[in-house]
Write a structure and sequence with these properties.
single chain; 94 residues; 6 helices; 434 Repressor (Amino-terminal Domain); mainly alpha; globular
């Protein structure tokens, strides 16, 4: 399985910490991390909770196996902001 880029970007774009999203969805933080990294499949209930919390529909976050071409990993590289951190780092004064 591969990283769920759509879910990762939705969590990042929300401006909230991954643990905050996990708690709001009643999902353990470790499980959410595994869902994002593609190590486990979310249950239908988890898909719905995440979608509601992130303000989208489940089909936006969870692409069907036949539709994987809709989200290209290269798309992440073209984003101006960092894609991996789930916490925003404080600005450091020069």
């Amino acid at each position: 399985m591969s990283t769920n880029v759509a879910l990762k970007m939705a969590v990042f774009s929300s401006g909230r910490l991954q643990i905050e999203i996990a708690k709001a969805c009643r999902i353990h933080e470790t499980r959410l991390s595994k869902i994002i990294r593609g190590h486990v499949d979310p249950t239908p209930k988890e898909k719905l909770r995440l979608a509601i919390e992130l303000g989208v529909t489940p089909d936006v976050l969870f692409v069907s196996p036949g539709d994987e071409s809709l989200v290209e990993p290269d798309d992440v590289d073209n984003v101006d902001q960092p894609t991996l951190p789930f916490r925003r780092k404080a600005a450091v004064a020069p």
